[in-house]
Amino acid sequence: MPRFFKSLFGQVVLAVILGVVVGLVWPDTAVALKPLGDGFIKLIKMLIPLIVFCVVVHGIAGTGDLKRVGRVGVKSLIYFEVVTTVALVLGLVLAFVFQPGVGMNVDPKALDPKAMGAYVENAGKLTGGGFTEFLLKLIPNTAVSAFANGDVLQVLLFSIVFGCALAMLGERGARVTVLIEDLSHVLFKTMGIIIKLAPLGVLGAIAFTVGKYGIGSLKQLGMLVVLFYAAVVIFVVVVLGTIMRVSGFSLFKLLRYLREELAVVFATTSSDSVLPQIMAKLKHMGIRDSTVGLVIPTGYSFNLDAFSIYITLAAVFIAQATNTPISMADLLTILAISLVTSKGAHGVPGSAIVVLAATLQAIPAIPAIGLVLVLSVDWFMGIARALGNLIGNCVATVAIAAWEGDIDRSRAHAVLDGQDVEPIEPAPDMAAPQVAPQSAA
């Protein structure tokens, strides 16, 4: 047991337990601990743009094969759209089969519209201008502003162009490529230092939540929460599990390999908090740098599997709770709009509610004010959203790497089996279990 708590995973588990205790016994103190969680996530986010830049540029320049990079990009987008559509349909089917909102008989006129003010405003910004405006938003005003704003898609766009230019220069760009590779080592070492603070961040996030909302918060709208968690589990085990088997790997071994990152995401409800570590671990599995560098950052905005389940499930729930009949045309509209609005979700404040509001704006039949019903349990559903999205992106990277032949299968199996494998490059301390046999904890 002492050895367990020396590991980062053990320390995170202990932090979760302490956070619940503090939240129950000293709720006022627990609420005051919120800056610990917020600060930890901000420390992680400050490095994400630079790490994405270094990984993508070095991956493309090191490959030198721009046709391969293009193939990976196209295959990634095809995969994302197909799997996201499956997730959207799953949410609709489960909502109609189990009908979580039926019987609530909520009068939309009795709901307080003030709670939705900021979300509706952001929803207007998200959908304003249509698809053309969305594409224009991918282009930063300057290369520096992309990094300053922390917009992963804008950084990714600049990184791809920069990496392609570097690859086209050949030997003349070799010194810059080496410099970027060295910089990535420094950034990963810096991330290793920050990751040691993960238990404090988890303690602050959990304590705040329990202290503010109470341990019994899940009782309100419990059916919706339980159904959403069940939907995410079904999607991960059945859909993603099948994709992993077709790719030649075990989903459960991958989950065990990533258990520390999943524990941090569970506590912080933010998949951003582990993006650099996830990229390092997937590269350690033997997946080509350029594939990891393209699929993971792109997936954070284009492959939101659990998020997609949430959109359709919540939309139908609101219709049922407010006794609003919806036609097949409305359902098809929800699917079509969700495929677009979900792509702009990453980085938007209150993204889940904002995207849901943006989706409902296109369907006048469903009262958008019904979003107030979901607000009280949105944080709890956010746990499953973050976990499902992260697992989905990791599976996508493995699947596309297998599809493209960009993975060392023998190394990947050895790593997933917990065998001692030499690291490819320095990685964050959180990734330590990748070079030593994993315990069953």
TrEMBL record:
Physiological role: Responsible for the transport of dicarboxylates such as succinate, fumarate, and malate from the periplasm across the membrane.
Predominant cellular place of this UniProt entry's protein: membrane
GO terms, biological process: L-aspartate transmembrane transport
Xref: NCBIfam families: PRK01663.1, PRK13027.1
Keyword annotations of the record: Cell membrane, Membrane, Symport, Transmembrane, Transmembrane helix, Transport
Pfam families tied to this protein: SDF
Cellular component terms (Gene Ontology): plasma membrane
Compartments it resides in: Cell membrane
Signal peptide (residue range): none
Residue stretches spanning the membrane: 7-26, 46-66, 78-98, 152-170, 191-215, 221-243, 291-318, 324-341, 353-377, 383-403
UniProt membrane topology term: Multi-pass membrane protein
InterPro entries per record: Na-dicarboxylate_symporter, Na-dicarboxylate_symporter_CS, Na:dicarbo_symporter_sf
Name of the protein described by the UniProt record: Aerobic C4-dicarboxylate transport protein
Domain of life: Bacteria
Single GO MF annotation: malate:proton symporter activity
UniProt xrefs under PANTHER family: AEROBIC C4-DICARBOXYLATE TRANSPORT PROTEIN, PROTON/GLUTAMATE-ASPARTATE SYMPORTER
